[in-house]
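During data preparation, a discrete fold description was generated, and the record follows.
___
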Amino acid sequence: MKNPKVLIVDDEKNIRDLLEAGLKFAGFSVYSVGTGTEAVAVAEKAKPDIMVLDVMLPDQSGFSVTKKLRSMNLDLPVLFLSARDDRGDKVTGLTVGGDDYMTKPFSIDEVIARINAILRRTRKQDAEESIFEVGEIKINQDAHEVFVNGKEIDLSPTEYKLLRFLMGNANRVMSKDQILDHVWEYDFNGEQGIVESYVSYLRKKIDPLSKNQLIHTKRGVGYMYRTFKNEE
């Protein structure tokens, strides 16, 4: 991906300037705005590859911006930035469709590392065959559409990547470390709890439409996507 496009959204000009300078030096094309309303407008028009989004904006929260983008079927990855190191905020950010969460103050090198990790996941998906079907779930990988028994569900980019990884290793138990390594690539500070949270999000979307429980927990080991011989 040549000169990936990054949309920076932060109401503090000094932070926007810092991020913009660092990202441009690292070879990114950069858009920069200070409000949620501007973020939605630029995201729709410019189609950036990723957004670096402050949680606390003057007109609306970063969480609201992400929900709006998802409702518009704009599934660009989101890296949240926040001055609050609060686990509840992290969970909320990931629940609404974010892909990573960093607290201020931050290192520009770490921001770039996390952006690159997210973009590597996106690039890998581009090379996959179009239709991938295992058991009750079918994925159209060109369109990033996911269907459970014919009913479409809406997944964030990281939820999609996690489900694709588990389906690709169906009937095998994958450890949390394996999932972190293959799905996040950047180790998210070794926080295995992020895997538990994302598995929970997937189950809430999949279970109401599936005939069987598809994602199983193997306590002390990890998680497994299970297929069933009697599936029709």
Summary: The first strand starts at residue 5 and ends at 9. The chain has a mean pLDDT of 86.
